[in-house]
Write a structure and sequence with these properties.
The protein is built from 14 helices and 10 strands. The protein is α/β, with parallel strands linked by helices. It folds into 2 domains: 185 residues, Class I glutamine amidotransferase (GATase) domain (Rossmann fold, 3-Layer(aba) Sandwich); 101 residues, Arc Repressor Mutant, subunit A. Helix 9 packs across helix 10. Keywords: Transcription, Transcription regulation. Pfam families: DJ-1_PfpI, HTH_18.
Length: 336
Amino acid sequence: MGSAPTADPRVVVIVAFPGVLGLDVVGPLEVFAMANRFGARPAYATSVVSMTGGMLTASSGLVIGTEPAGTIAGPVDTLMVAGGYSTRQAADDLDLVRWLAGTALSARRVTSVCSGALLLARAGLLDGRRATTHWSVCDTLASHFPSVRVETSRVYVRDGDVWTSGGVTAGIDLALALVENDHGPALAMAAAREMVVFVHRPSEFPQISAQLAVRRPLREPLRDLLALIAEHPDADLSVPALAHRCAMSVRTFSRVFHRETGTTPAAFVQASRLQTAQRLIKASEATFEDIARTCGFGTVETMYRTFQRVLGTTPGQLRGQPRGGSEPVIERRRNP
C-alpha cells in the first residue's frame, strides 16, 4: 500500500458486486456517517463502487446504487471490499481483481469485510500477511491462498496497513476500529453508543459468542437462563442455584441442559465468564481485581488459573499482547 497523504476529507471506497451482503456495505457506511455526525475531522467521504456502476442487488434483495470503479479519481484513504455468498464469482472477474491491485497501491489502507478477504487474496494483497474472514470460509482462504496466515477466531485482524474482519456484523467492529485509529477512542465510543452496538468488540474477541456456540434451547426457561448468565456473570451461577431458578432438581436440570444445549451448565458458565473477562481486559482499564469480581471468578488467582487452563494464557498476557485471542471454549462432556 502506498503512503499517499491523508485526503481531506478521508475518501472511503467500498467495493460491492451483485449478490453482496447488504450489511457488509451498509454497516460500515453507517459507522463512518455517525463518526461525521460526532465531529470527525477530517470527515469521511464515502462511496460505493462496482465495476460497471449503476444499481446492483444484494443477496437480501436490497438494491444498492454504485459508481463505476473506474471513475474514482484522486487519492483513496480507505479501500474496503465487502463480502457475500457470490464472492467467489466476483473473484473470477479479472478486471475487478486488477482494479483492486492497482487502487491498493496508492491507498493509505486496504480493508475487507467478511469473505471480501478472498478478493484481497486473489489480488495478491494478503500475501505473507495475517488475516481473517467469515468463520465459514477460513478454511477456503487458507487452502486456496497458503501464503496467507489465517487467524480463524478473530473479529478483525490488522497487519500493517491491511485490515480484515470476520463475517457480516464484524464489519461494524472493523469500521469502529478504523474510526478509533483515526480519531481516538472517545469518538468511536460515541458512534457505537449512538448505533446501540451491544459492545464494541476488540480485535481479539471471538467471532462466535458463547451463547451462539451452543444449541438454542427449546424450553423458554433455559433460554432465559442463558441470557441471565451472559448479563450477570457475578451472580450465583452454581448448578444448584441454576436448577432452582428452573424449578428442577439438580440431576434433572443437568440432564435437560446438556440435552438442549450440547454442553454442561458449568462449562457454559465458564465460557461466558471467560468471554466477558476477555472483553473487559482488552476494552477497559478496570483492575484485574474488579474484573475477577465482576465476572464471577471471585479472586484474581481463580481467574488466572482458569485463563491458563482453558485459554493457555494469562490476563496479564492478554492485556499486554494485542495480537492474542481465542475462541470461546465450551467443553462438550457426556452427561453423567
